[in-house]
Amino acid sequence: MGNYYGKGTINFDNAPSVHSYASAVGPKEGQGPLADYFDYIGEEAALGEKSWEMAEVILQKSAFRSALEKGQLAETDISFIFAGDLLNQCTCSSYGIRDFDIPFIGLFGACSTMAESLALASVFVESGLAQNAAAMTSSHFCSAERQFRMPVNYGGQRTPASQWTATAAGCVVVAPRKAPPYVRAATFGKVTDMGVKDVNNMGGAMAGAAYETISTHLANTQQSINDFDMILTGDLGKVGSGLLIDLFKRDSVDIARVHADCGLMLYKISEQDVHAGASGCGCSASVLCGYILKRISEGKLKNVLFTATGALMSPTMSQQGESIPAVAHAVHISAE
Amino acid sequence: MGNYYGKGTINFDNAPSVHSYASAVGPKEGQGPLADYFDYIGEEAALGEKSWEMAEVILQKSAFRSALEKGQLAETDISFIFAGDLLNQCTCSSYGIRDFDIPFIGLFGACSTMAESLALASVFVESGLAQNAAAMTSSHFCSAERQFRMPVNYGGQRTPASQWTATAAGCVVVAPRKAPPYVRAATFGKVTDMGVKDVNNMGGAMAGAAYETISTHLANTQQSINDFDMILTGDLGKVGSGLLIDLFKRDSVDIARVHADCGLMLYKISEQDVHAGASGCGCSASVLCGYILKRISEGKLKNVLFTATGALMSPTMSQQGESIPAVAHAVHISAE
């Protein structure tokens, strides 16, 4: 089993493989710059379902089924599913997974779920507890928007710092070591609270957690940013990415050189009216399971530190005047 | 590391120890039959806080701090915290844990969280990824009631099948094998949907998941109910416990002989006006971390299959006419 490098960080000695992966997105994401990389693009937001929640369920099931198919696996080959999502009670995960006869380990990490689930699936595979383990998450603009902010049809004005919750899902199947991409290490983050109270500035709330987790990973593994082609955050967007770069500047580290953010990759920012960029569990999930893992598989990216960022924002707590805590989890995925 | 027994079940070869444990409850629970076993009993529902949510945060922090103290551990001795709760965005876990400098792995399993977190903490300890790992959860009658059903002050009539969400928290610290209680095995359950749509009948919704997980555990480990002093479910209450017994009768198994339910142990059912019993993440957590682990430590119980049961109930999905899926996770805790 992997070594325990230091607080929060796991080294996978016998790094498990990303066996297969798939993504499913909505129409807006299908008009973005990564359209060619997605396995399924829905034609309209409801995907033919009677509710947005059920549409999101469809996205997650579609990503899971595509990942199985692309990996030539049957449902019975999957030992455990690690999944969660943004909706209250992680609805889309449990309502999706009830159709499968597979043990379910439910997670809540908000938009950090893709990294959290991928790290845990890797722990189970490396330790021999799972033959194959699936890691999965999703989000949907309409289901998230009405839960966290405004009724969608109300058409509330969006602030410049606000981000667009992706209608998207991603699924990775992790298997014992065979071929790249490999999962080489992971760091589970701490809850970090920057004191941000603006529910329209998720990037600002999450930047501190991303900084904390990336710094911890580099320190614990005795690596520097030079060991990575790309340090990829989940959904900091314009505001959060700027803050992350500033936070690293205090340590005299120019992270901008290798930093990319899924929230700035999913849409044509200037054309698609998404203000500070994309967000949501499905943002980092679909960018990872669409574009990034393909680039790593092709050897065009060698070492990526995938750091999904989650704002643990509760409307109830915000209404009580509380600030927004955040968490980030990092997974080192490698072509080597 | 533990063997992989069969689908969903983990055997801990070198069974980790329950190093310490603690519970914290509200005033109603402090008037119940297990009052003598709790580490902290609040005097009133708000515990001196300005909101019920913050009161629940206090319960979880209190249970965590007591578990550290009883185990003579410092915060720095804990490698990871596995936690979640019933509230949207698992609020009470993240707002509690932000005060600690410890990596956080957020879970959502509704009332199955105590078993889910305990099983994952055991995996991390047994595999050498954690020195000590904490497993923790909570619930609060008032915060849960207004989120899932009615505004508390409205005083809505409660149905006979309804259960009383416990105001309670529990925390277990798992450490490498040294002394009993030991965590010997665990089974992660599947999402099981019995088609129950009554949001006041959580026991009915969960009975099928409990049956599924207990049966799977016994089959995978080649054990029978005779190998246990107690098969303890989380919060099936009167209705769900009856259904569980009936489900096992179909297999000619008289589980009633060894079955107990935390939901029927926390209150004086006939006197405390709780209808079908207790429920909530904090129900099984406080009964486990108050009464049961003490009985196992003293050798009065030898082998307990602790099966926490979670109704993955979403008010949004219920309003859309959907049934309530459920999940149960089982952990074999032993004095031997």
Q: How would you sum up this structure, described in words?
A:
2 copies of one chain form a homodimer. By secondary structure, chain A is α/β, with parallel strands linked by helices. The first copy, chain A, folds into 2 domains: 15-175, Stage V sporulation protein AD (Peroxisomal Thiolase, Chain A, domain 1); 182-334, 3-Layer(aba) Sandwich (Peroxisomal Thiolase, Chain A, domain 1). In chain A, 31% of the residues lie in helices and 24% in strands. The first copy, chain A, is built from 8 helices and 16 strands. In chain A, the strands form 3 sheets. In chain A, strands 1, 2, 10, 11, 12, 13, 15 and 16 form an 8-stranded mixed beta sheet that branches. In chain A, strands 4-3-9-7-5-6 form a 6-stranded mixed beta sheet, with helices on both faces. In chain A, a hairpin with a 2-residue loop joins strand 1 (3-6) and strand 2. The longest helix of chain A has 20 residues, at 202-221. Chain A is globular and about 50 Å long.
Please name the defining characteristics of this protein.
homodimer; 336 residues; alpha/beta; Peroxisomal Thiolase, Chain A, domain 1; eight-stranded mixed sheet; globular
